[in-house]
Specification:
Structural class of chain B: mainly alpha
Largest interface: A-B, 49 and 42 residues
Shape of chain B: elongated
Radius of gyration of chain B: 21 Å
Oligomer: heterodimer
Helix content of chain A: 25-40%
Shape of chain A: globular
Radius of gyration of chain A: 23 Å
Largest sheet of chain B: 2 strands, antiparallel
Distance between the termini of chain B: 39 Å
Low-confidence stretches of chain B: 1-7
Order of helices and strands of chain A: HEEEHEHEHHHEHEHEEHEHEEHEH
Order of helices and strands of chain B: HHHEEHHHHHHHH
Strand content of chain A: 25-35%
Low-confidence stretches of chain A: 1-17
Chain lengths: 325, 277
């Protein structure tokens, strides 16, 4: 499941060994004093892949992103981005990256278009390239008519799109997206997904953290589920669902009074029964058949729903249901 | 439409530059960002920073000057009180401008605007950011110094062509304070801590032989003040303003050169620690 963590590896050699991998992490570890935020994770991302890091809050996703960007120094392990160590070649590695941080850090003292131009200057790009590029990206982000607006006049979704447009100013080979759609309304999320999908089609490698399972299913070719700094599972969304969940899920609500005790009475139906505070989930390959078995036992749920298994079921199973913060 | 077609040569060229781990030879980008931001920001702060020393000069020089009469200048010759305090106020103005830019401005950008976090996610290194921001502080210092020197000329306080050199000397003073100010600010976490900077600067302003000679103090106080940066700035500008040079002139300049070197080392190290942890 994990990558070959024992394989011999050096920064310069790895590029020759697997020219397709743009990111190679081996036993990557980050400790803050007593706390180990990232605990020996290994993965490889080939060029053009859309790779997701899933996990609850505090799982170590953002820390991993920061180490990839070279703005956080690893405690141990190896990391190679485009064949370079981000720790010793920070500016050079970041010249290949586009970064969308968890919180927008747009330059509020500058206008919308100026934000793009100035950010491009940080990469050492000439104005003759940046002027047309900024206009192109404004169009891509659907912000052309806001070019001369102040940043603080933009809505949350617009700011997010501007941040993404900004991250593309240097035509990055790798785009790091840390919870790109957190806090956005559904419409804004769908617009963003569309934009990200287009980038993927153009061959940009996307590295994405999220705790929205629908987002991961939409955007990721492959993902790792991280919890407490460790990799719990790795694979495509479909293969993870196959491996860790059943084809369908039957959701039953008996009211909060009965939910906690009903589990015993449902035992044996489907492959697995999971009792949540508000509902009971029965994992089964045939949800309708499971529902018939429930009825046969004369248990009358207030509501019932048969749905396909989703990444969320995998996620909850792997990372536990208790709230982590 | 395609975001990735066209202009490959420009982005590739930008990637093929020589990078250091802390520096990518691109401080200019930080400077041009500052100038662009200044365009849309309020000019009031800039203006107030210029007027403060002018008001002091008018009130003390014109108001207090006739009562004081003439005082002994650096070479021992008698000069008017206004001519005595004017270069000192210029040094204070250079200090204030540089400190404002490198402390309050930097504090805000670091902790609230998260500007440096954004910059350091590009191919800029911490040294690019430090040099760029310090250069902006110097630019402001240059503007203040030029304006104040013009006021001195109008008030008839300039009697030698040497006096024009107070402008570059003010920039040197500003450089010393700006390079240190930014490093010190990186330690500050709250507004209360930022007030300590004022707590340090006000006494330095009042007691660094700004308004009267150092000789009024007992010997050990003199030593204390001579260890402070502003006193060296005041003495340097005072000497230049009347064209009276001595070996001490070189000491004052050397003091600032050392201060600049230490300040930049401190600031770069701190930026690295703060943002590349």
């Amino acid at each position: 499941m994990h990558n070959e963590a024992t394989r011999s590896f050096s920064t310069s050699a790895s590029f020759e060994m697997n020219p397709a991998a743009v990111i190679t992490a081996e036993n990557l570890t980050k400790s803050y004093g007593e706390l180990t935020a990232v605990d020996g994770i290994s993965f490889e991302v080939p060029a053009g892949e859309s790779f997701g890091l899933l996990g609850p809050n505090g799982a170590g996703k953002s820390t991993t992103m920061k180490m990839i960007g070279g703005v956080s120094q690893r405690t141990s392990g190896k990391l190679s981005i485009m064949g370079l160590d981000p720790e010793t070649h920070g500016p050079e590695v970041r010249a290949h990256l586009g970064v969308v941080p968890q919180q927008d850090n747009l330059d509020e003292e500058l206008k919308v278009r100026e934000n793009l131009i100035v950010y491009g200057r940080y990469f050492g790009l000439p104005l003759s390239y940046l002027r047309p590029k900024a206009d192109e990206l404004l169009e891509f982000a659907q912000l052309t008519d806001k070019a001369r607006s102040r940043v603080d006049a933009l809505s949350g979704g617009m700011k997010r799109r501007l941040t993404i447009a900004r991250s593309l100013i240097n035509e990055p080979k790798i785009l790091l997206l840390d919870e790109p759609t957190t806090g956005l309304d559904p419409q804004a999320r769908h617009i963003l997904w569309d934009r990200l999908f287009r980038l993927k089609e153009q061959g940009v490698t996307l590295i994405l953290t999220t705790h929205y399972m629908d987002e991961a299913e939409q955007l990721c070719d492959r993902l790792i589920v991280v919890d407490k700094g460790r990799i719990m599972a790795e694979g495509s969304p479909a293969s993870l669902i196959r491996e860790y969940s059943t084809r369908e899920v039957l959701e039953l609500r008996f009211g909060s009074e009965r939910n906690s005790t009903i589990g015993v009475e449902l035992a044996g139906i489907g492959e697995r029964v999971e009792t949540l505070p508000d509902r009971v989930l029965i994992y089964a390959n045939d949800g309708e058949a499971a529902l018939e078995q429930v009825s046969a036992r004369r248990l009358r749920p207030l509501t019932s729903l048969v749905r396909r298994s989703s990444l969320e079921d995998v996620f909850l199973r792997l990372t536990g249901r208790s709230l982590v913060d | 439409m395609s975001v990735l077609t066209g202009g490959h040569s420009a982005t590739d060229a930008a990637r093929e530059r020589t990078f250091g781990p802390l520096y990518s030879r691109n401080a200019l980008a930080v400077v041009s960002r500052g100038l662009m931001a200044a365009k849309s920001s309020t000019w009031l702060i800039l203006v107030s920073g210029f007027f403060e020393p002018v008001l002091y000069l008018v009130s003390m020089g014109v108001g207090l000057g006739p009562i004081v009469g003439t005082v002994a200048g650096p070479g021992g010759q008698e000069i008017s009180y206004a001519a005595y305090i004017a270069p000192a106020l210029l040094a204070v103005s250079a200090m204030n401008g540089a400190v404002y830019d490198s402390t309050w401005n930097v504090f805000f950008k670091m902790n609230f605007a998260k500007l440096y976090q954004g910059m350091l996610y590009t191919s800029l290194g911490p040294l690019d950011v430090a040099i760029g921001e310090i250069f902006l502080a110097l630019l402001r210092g240059l503007l203040y110094a030029t304006g104040f020197t013009a006021v001195m000329a109008v008030m008839g306080l300039i009697t030698t062509p040497w006096a024009i050199l107070v402008i570059p000397a003010s920039v040197l003073i500003a450089f010393g304070f700006a390079s240190f100010g930014m490093g010190i600010t990186s330690f500050m976490k709250t507004f209360q801590q930022m007030d300590w900077i004022n707590f340090f600067m006000l006494p330095m302003f009042l007691f660094s032989a700004t308004f009267y000679p150092l000789t009024v103090y007992p010997q050990y106080i003199q030593w204390l003040i001579q260890a402070m940066p502003l006193w060296h700035g005041v003495e340097l500008l005072r000497q230049i303003s009347i064209g009276s040079f001595s070996p001490a002139t070189a000491v004052h300049i050397a003091y600032y050169l050392v201060m600049i070197a230490l300040g930049i080392t401190l600031t770069t190290g701190r930026l690295r620690k703060l943002f590349l942890k």
